[in-house]
Amino acid sequence: MNSDFFNRPLWQQYLICILLMVVIFIIGYLFFIYDINKQSDKQQKLYQTKQLQIESLQSRLKHYQFGQNRSLIIINQNEFAQYIERNHLVLNAFKHYQTDETINWDIELNGEFIDFMNLISDLNKDYYYLNFRDLKMTKQESYLQIIFTLLFKRKIE
Predict the structure, then answer these.
(1) Is the overall model pTM greater than 0.70, yes or no?
(2) Contact indicator for 102, 153 with CB cutoff of 8 Å
(3) What torsion do the CA atoms of 125, 127, 132, 136 make, to the nearest 10 degrees?
């Protein structure tokens, strides 16, 4: 073995060994710092998603508490039409008539069952008063025909 390393003076051998150890230590330290940086970024993203979840749950809780503090609302025709459009349903027929004690809306909608269920859940979520009567669903060729009557008392006690 012809090695030039052992033919050098002793102080140079020590210096090369020490420099080699320092370089290895610095490279290991840089990898360690990089790994800690990646973990902190990951934890920060996790924290942000958890924070968004908390804010969402807090807003839902406030909405629920607000709804508990107020009574049900009677929907008007324009709001009902907006809910129908928002839930991708088609209003086929609408008949409005009144008796001495009630206001009746005969409604015929065309659309999918899931859209009708979304309509009902949206109305319930916003605390609208719903009293269904004579609910009928008929399957047509490419859609579902939904016929029902909404009843409203003239004065809600």
Answers:
(1) no
(2) yes
(3) -20
For residue range 82-92, list pLDDT tens digits in order: 889 999 999 98
Beta strand pairing status for 102-111 and 90-98? antiparallel
Nearest-angstrom CA–CA distance, 58 and 60: 5
Query: Distance of CA 68 to CAs 61, 120, 128, Å?
Result: 10, 19, 13
The pLDDT tens digits for 24-71 are: 999 999 999 999 999 999 999 999 999 999 988 888 777 766 655 556
- Phi/psi at 106 (nearest 5 deg)? -90, 120
Continuous segment of H or E residues that includes residue 150: strand 144-153
DSSP string, 89-133: -EEEEEEEEE-SSEEEEEEEEEE-HHHHHHHHHHHHHTTB---EE
